[in-house]
């Protein structure tokens, strides 16, 4: 979350008037994240998060907001999107599509406990199972075609060792057979800053705007890569095993998923290494904008390439 489009009280008040949320009390920008403009908004009726979509258009929003609504109704811990007075889940604001969702309690965790990892594993498995009833479909926008195109754009900006690592990993990933893997709705960005906790209790999964239909095991790899490694990017065995065990208790793994597990950990690290390299080399303008360091994702990739990943249970 960042602020690319500054919002004023003068522009926000008529936007809020389209909703049944009372009158504006206070609002301020949120600095975390890299894609959209986000504000915390307090009204006389509650607390909300306002998102202005910087890249997504109105035709794309029903998937994300409809998915959040679908999961929330089924008890998956997600913020509920608010419908405007006309029934729509999004409205225009400053020339951008915008949405208002309930602000859920809790904070992100910088250093997760093993118990918190277990809660994330269970919630992710529930997302994968309960998401089966959602009738929307969206292909992934960070697939292998995106890897190749982003690599081409980055090569003139990279050091020789970075190019060598990138080319070798792209060649490896091109040879992985993923044709028989279970798939459906995934979060695709379940990092520690996209889950909120009140103590050890998971209160919600947030930032759904990379959600798509793709491989469940890849979604799990994204989470494990962030939640279950130490400060040197090595596996934390207790966190790793508890997250995977809690997930498997809801949705057991298939043999095909066990075969590709290490490759999917590498694919997750590659995807986020590429996107963070791109943001470093081609930064976007904006207030409070956060550019994340690509180095941790490279170190994860190097560890999994060296065979240090723990197996699925």
From TrEMBL:
Gene3D superfamilies in alphabetical order: 3.90.1200.10, Phosphorylase Kinase, domain 1 (3.30.200.20)
Protein's UniProt keywords contain Oxidoreductase: no
E.C. designation(s): 2.7.1.39
A matching Pfam family: APH
Start and end residues of each Aminoglycoside phosphotransferase domain: 29-253
Involved pathway(s): Amino-acid biosynthesis; L-threonine biosynthesis; L-threonine from L-aspartate: step 4/5
GO BP annotations, alphabetical order: threonine biosynthetic process
Gene Ontology molecular function, alphabetical: ATP binding; homoserine kinase activity
Reactions catalysed: L-homoserine + ATP = O-phospho-L-homoserine + ADP + H(+)
Keywords: Amino-acid biosynthesis, ATP-binding, Kinase, Nucleotide-binding, Threonine biosynthesis, Transferase
Similarity comment: Belongs to the pseudomonas-type ThrB family.
Name used for this protein in its record: Homoserine kinase
Species the sequence originates in: Abyssibacter profundi
């Amino acid at each position: 979350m960042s602020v690319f489009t500054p919002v004023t009280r003068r522009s926000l008040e008529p936007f809020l008037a389209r909703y049944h949320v009372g009158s504006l009390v206070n609002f301020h920008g949120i600095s975390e994240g890299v894609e959209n403009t986000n504000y915390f908004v307090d009204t006389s009726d509650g607390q909300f998060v306002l998102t202005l979509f910087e890249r997504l258009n109105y035709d794309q929003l029903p998937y994300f907001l409809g998915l959040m609504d679908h999961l929330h109704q089924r008890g998956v811990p997600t913020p509920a999107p608010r419908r405007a007075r006309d029934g729509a889940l999004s409205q225009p604001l400053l020339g951008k599509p915008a949405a208002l969702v309930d602000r859920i309690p809790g904070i992100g965790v910088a250093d997760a406990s093993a118990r918190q990892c277990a809660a994330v594993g269970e919630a992710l498995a529930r997302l994968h199972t309960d998401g089966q009833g959602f009738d929307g479909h969206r292909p992934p926008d960070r697939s292998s075609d995106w890897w190749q195109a982003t690599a081409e754009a980055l090569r003139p900006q990279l050091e020789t060792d970075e190019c060598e690592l990138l080319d070798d990993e792209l060649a490896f990933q091109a040879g992985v057979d993923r044709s028989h893997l279970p798939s459906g709705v995934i979060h695709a960005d379940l990092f520690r800053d996209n889950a909120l906790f009140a103590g050890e209790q998971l209160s919600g999964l947030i930032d759904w705007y990379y959600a798509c239909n793709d491989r469940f095991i890849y979604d799990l790899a994204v989470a494990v890569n962030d939640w279950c490694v130490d400060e040197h990017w090595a596996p934390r065995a207790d966190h790793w095993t508890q997250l995977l065990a809690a997930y498997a208790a809801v949705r057991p793994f298939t043999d095909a998923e066990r075969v590709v597990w290490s490759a999917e950990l590498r694919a997750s690290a590659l995807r986020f290494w590429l996107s963070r390299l791109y943001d470093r080399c081609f930064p976007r303008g904006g207030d409070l904008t956060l550019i994340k360091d690509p180095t941790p994702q490279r170190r994860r990739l190097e560890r999994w390439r060296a065979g240090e990943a723990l197996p699925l249970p």
